[in-house]
Design goal:
Elements lengths: L1 E8 L3 H10 L6 E4 L11 E3 L5 E3 L12 H9 L3 E2 L16 H22 L18 H12 L8 H6 L8 E2 L3 H7 L6 E2 L4 E5 L5 E5 L2 E10 L3 H5 L4 E3 L3 H8 L3 E2 L1 E8 L9 E4 L8 E4 L6 E7 H7 L5 H15 L7 E6 L12 E2 L8 H6 L6 E3 L12 H24 L2
Parallel strand pairs: 1-2, 1-10, 2-7, 8-11, 10-19
Antiparallel strand pairs: 3-4, 5-6, 8-9, 9-10, 12-18, 13-16, 13-17, 14-15, 15-16
Helix pairs in contact: 1-12
């Protein structure tokens, strides 16, 4: 039995932010992480080209206001502020400019309808707002999977309307995951320490792990909702409201495949290519940072269908769509580099949260403290910044502030 003041469960963006805020407060803080690495759903692989391959979060969304931007400056990470590929016209192979303009008009009109519906009293699926013209429905659905991890039929318009985005998107050249992992340096983190149960019946919490039991005055939990909903941690007494809230905020899926292409100089730098406009669709980000790489995005039901242990099914699908657009001779020039499989990862079970229809208010239920001893953080607890690493950061600092206030009040009353 090891005693600390606060245990932070999970060393992802939220847990790291919480532990950083707690450090220097005179409290004994320990972070328990089930993985053998820090970062959670932020994970960067190095590449010989000198850039980071982000298998998880990769963009500093709302970058000027994003706390990770300031930390990148503080920790010496170079930030790229160039225009994202998705903000430029896509390559015209199979998708000429005139049709791209038609699609952009349909997309803008859909977002306008979604915004109006988001302010209505009753929630509804975003698919209800799709245009009557079926031409762009598959591509509009695909865009939703890249942004939200789910198709429009599963997307709450109330939840979507609450999301705040300044439309400023930057990147960390060495990788967002590398930045988040570096921010954990100096913290007391125990890797390979999954928490299995929390007994909060008595004044002191008993936190059981595969490496022993810890006693603590408080705990901050940052588990992904799908993991919490499956009751990977047993609570005594039980916390059905938390489990139900987590189940109402499931994780969508957005996966990536990185491919290397020989003769990359023939392709434009930092451009987008749509693999199709109908049916199942992948999105290709050509030559990020001027490299010889192609970053492929697959989301929603397509990603779930293709996920396998080594990424080969996603890679084969991506090669087929790329060759269909750019020519069959491309097949022999493309090699597999890496792929994510977030739904298959038992410690995440998905990418980022969305609210079920009519359930967006469950984010506040999930975030609420229990008896001023159990505190909850993670992107899913954020009303306006869900699905982002900065939303996770803000939730972690918010939970840390709640814990500090509760422990300070407890000391003053004894």
């Amino acid at each position: 039995m090891s005693d600390v003041d606060i245990v932070v469960i999970g060393a992802g963006a939220a847990g790291i932010a919480a532990a950083r805020r707690l450090s220097g407060c005179g409290l004994r803080v320990r972070v328990l992480e089930a993985r053998q690495r820090v970062g959670g759903r932020a994970w960067t692989l190095p590449d010989p080209a000198g850039i980071g391959l982000d298998l998880g979060c990769g963009w500093l969304h709302s970058a000027v206001d994003n706390e990770w931007t300031a930390l990148a400056d503080e920790l010496g990470f170079a930030i790229d502020t160039s225009q994202p590929a998705w903000s430029k016209p896509a390559l015209e192979q199979g998708f000429p400019a005139a049709r791209q303009n038609e699609f952009r008009t349909a997309l803008d009109a859909l977002f306008e309808r979604l915004d109006r519906a988001g302010h209505a009293r009753d929630d509804r699926p975003a698919a209800d707002l799709l245009p009557k013209d079926p031409r762009w429905r598959d591509l509009l659905d695909a865009v939703s999977t890249w942004i939200n991890g789910v198709e429009l039929a599963q997307l709450s318009v109330h939840d979507l309307c609450r999301y705040v985005d300044t439309d400023v998107n930057w990147r960390v050249r060495a990788g967002y995951g590398s930045l988040i992992a570096t921010a954990a340096e100096g913290l007391d983190v125990m890797l390979g320490s999954p928490v299995t149960a929390i007994d909060h019946a008595d004044r002191a919490l008993k936190i059981e792990t595969t490496r022993g039991t810890f006693a603590a005055r408080a705990a901050i939990l940052t588990l992904p909702t799908d993991v919490l909903a499956r009751e990977a941690i047993r609570f005594a007494p039980a916390l059905p409201d938390k489990i139900d809230a987590a189940a109402a905020l499931p994780l969508g899926l957005a996966d990536k495949v990185f491919m290397r292409i020989a003769g990359a100089h023939e392709l434009p730098i930092e451009r987008r290519l749509y693999g199709a406009t109908e049916g199942e669709i992948a999105s290709f980000h050509l030559r990020p940072f001027g490299s010889d790489l192609i970053e492929v995005y697959l989301g929603g039901a397509l990603a779930r269908r293709l996920e396998d242990d080594d990424g080969r099914a996603m890679f084969a699908f991506a090669v087929d769509q790329f060759a269909d657009r750019m020519g069959n001779d491309m097949r022999g020039r493309i090699s597999f580099v890496a792929a994510s499989a977030w739904a298959r990862d038992p410690l995440s079970r998905g990418s980022y949260s969305h609210a079920r229809i009519g359930m967006s208010d469950r984010r506040a239920v999930l975030a609420a403290p229990v008896d001023d001893r159990l505190f909850f953080a993670g992107e899913a607890t954020s009303r306006e910044d869900f699905s982002t690493a900065h939303g996770a950061y803000r939730s972690g600092t918010r939970a840390a502030e709640e814990a500090i206030a509760a422990l300070t009040a407890s000391r003053q009353s004894t």
